[in-house]
Design brief:
Largest interface: A-B, 21 and 25 residues
Helix content of chain A: under 10%
Order of helices and strands of chain B: EEEEEEEEEEE
Distance between the termini of chain A: 35 Å
Strand content of chain A: over 45%
Number of helices of chain A: 0
Largest sheet of chain B: 7 strands, mixed
Strand content of chain B: over 45%
Radius of gyration of chain B: 13 Å
Number of helices of chain B: 0
Oligomer: heterodimer
Shape of chain A: globular
Radius of gyration of chain A: 13 Å
Largest sheet of chain A: 5 strands, mixed
Chain lengths: ~110, ~110
């Protein structure tokens, strides 16, 4: 079973910031927090990952709570192309299988 | 560079038949994983191969099998197809140092 919980769906207006929450209360010290997104009719796409500190890249920012039991993916200025299902996944670096256990994700709807 | 390529893109099979799905990873990537995604759900891990050896197997029946070839391409085989095997089958490749998996667009399998 997935070790993360996310809202089923969220709506946001175009060109506004979006904060996608994720709870992972049972996270272990060796779990990295990964985010992927899946656009309609496509395979999932890596977005960002982090361990303890907040992370930024060209796609998004990841804010990690101090106790690591929750995190938030931040899209700074959403566009219509950001409409997708966003998945928050924990990946144990000690797991040599690199198996990703996915939940149902959050469907992000962007309104023009 | 070409991404992860999967073939065919769509496939319709009859119950009881056998199917072979193919995946070519990104050049230089030695790890390939297979996932099954049923409509409305997140992907579920089926297999991972690294350097032609099986490194991980998900909770799928023995009707599912896979292999990886010397050029690191991979095949997923499913025997005795059931209606419940209808899904999007995703292939992902990975190499040491990558931040995350790169997924193909998948093969949409419909069993009738």
């Amino acid at each position: 079973d997935a070790k993360t919980t996310q809202p089923n769906s969220m709506e946001s207006n175009e060109e506004e910031p979006v904060h996608l929450p994720c709870n992972h209360s049972t996270i272990s010290g060796t779990d990295y927090i990964h985010w992927y997104r899946q656009l309609p009719s496509q395979g999932p796409e890596y977005v960002i990952h982090g361990l303890t500190s907040n992370v930024n890249n060209r796609m998004a920012s990841l804010a990690i709570a101090e106790d690591r039991k929750s995190s938030t993916l931040i899209l700074h200025r959403a566009t219509l192309r950001d409409a997708a299902v966003y998945y928050c996944i924990l990946r144990d670096v000690m797991d040599s299988n690199y198996q990703l256990i996915w939940g149902a994700g959050t469907k992000l709807i962007i309104k023009p | 560079d070409a991404g992860v390529t999967q073939s065919p893109t769509h496939l319709i099979k009859t119950r009881g038949q056998h199917v072979t799905l193919r995946c070519s990873p990104i050049s230089g990537h030695k790890s390939v994983s297979w996932y099954q995604q049923v409509l409305g759900q997140g992907p579920q891990f089926i297999f991972q191969y690294y350097e032609k050896e099986e490194r991980g197997r998900g909770n799928f029946p023995d009707r599912f099998s896979a292999r990886q070839f010397p050029n690191y391409s991979s095949e997923l085989n499913v025997n005795a197809l059931l209606l419940g095997d209808s899904a999007l089958y995703l292939c992902a490749s990975y190499t040491t140092g990558d931040y995350g998996y790169t997924f193909g667009s998948g093969t949409r399998l419909t069993v009738v």
